[in-house]
Amino acid sequence: MSTPLQHLKKDPALAAIIEHWGDYGIRYRPPTFETLVRSIVSQQLNGKAASTIFGRLHAAAGEEEMTPGGILALSPERLREIGLSGQKSSYVRDLATKARDGSVVFESLPDMDDESVIKHLTAVKGIGVWTVQMFLMFALQRQDVLPTADLGIRTAMKRAYGLPELPKPDEMVKIAAPWAPHRTMACWYLWRSLDNMGGADLG
After folding, report:
1. Cα-Cα-Cα-Cα dihedral of 155, 156, 161, 162, to 10°?
2. In tens digits, what is the pLDDT along the chain, a chain of 203 residues?
3. Which of 22, 127, 166, 186 is deepest in the core (most CB within 10 A)?
4. Residue spans per domain, the chain
């Protein structure tokens, strides 16, 4: 039986990337409320700014492990003082409200299939499919995720396969079909080929 890397190396373009970048080194975070809050905070921010704001939020919540109650104890005004936009403040508070009232149950996520996790979490304001796909890959450790909306993956595919323009989702699915069931690993290498880890740290 071939290893995941041997399987992916059957694709010559991917094999060249794998040879260049070496060992697979994905880093995971726990599939928790705190991790998803971090992901919301990080949306459309560079890593340093996101880390600073999240650090302030964590300190203000006053807990070793962030909880919905700790977030909801902070007023929208306090969240803005910390550095969250009004929009992100509403997203974080909506997630906290849904987690506290049981609409979102993090303990159930590991037992759900990918599509069910996407449906469950996109019910939260401000959480789209891409954010959930990053959570699937880097928190729930799902091994066969292809985030077709990710600009980094689209750019890396264009470069690796000599495409005239950024591929559309259906073209990406076609290119990635031979990688299954290891598309998460393939995407990690595509991000590496840009020297850009995309959502790899979930912020």
Report:
1. 50
2. 679 999 999 999 999 999 999 999 999 999 999 999 999 998 877 778 889 999 999 999 988 999 999 999 999 999 999 999 999 999 999 999 999 999 999 999 999 999 999 999 999 999 999 999 999 999 999 999 999 999 999 999 999 999 999 999 999 999 999 999 999 999 999 999 998 555 545 54
3. 186
4. 4-26+145-193, 33-138
Examine domains 4-26+145-193 and 33-138 and report if their fold is the same: no
Global confidence as pTM: 0.90
49 contact partners, CB below 8 Å, separation of at least 6:
none
Locate tokens 């071939």: which residue? 2
Query: What is the torsion angle, in degrees rounded to the nearest 10, for the CA atoms of residue 198, residue 112, residue 14 and residue 131?
Result: -20
Q: Which fold has domain 4-26+145-193?
A: Endonuclease Iii, domain 2 (1.10.1670)
CATH number for the region 33-138 comes to 1.10.340.30
* Full 3-state SS string of 111-155: HCCHHHHHHHHCCCCCCCHHHHHHHHHHCCCCCCCCCCCCHHHHH
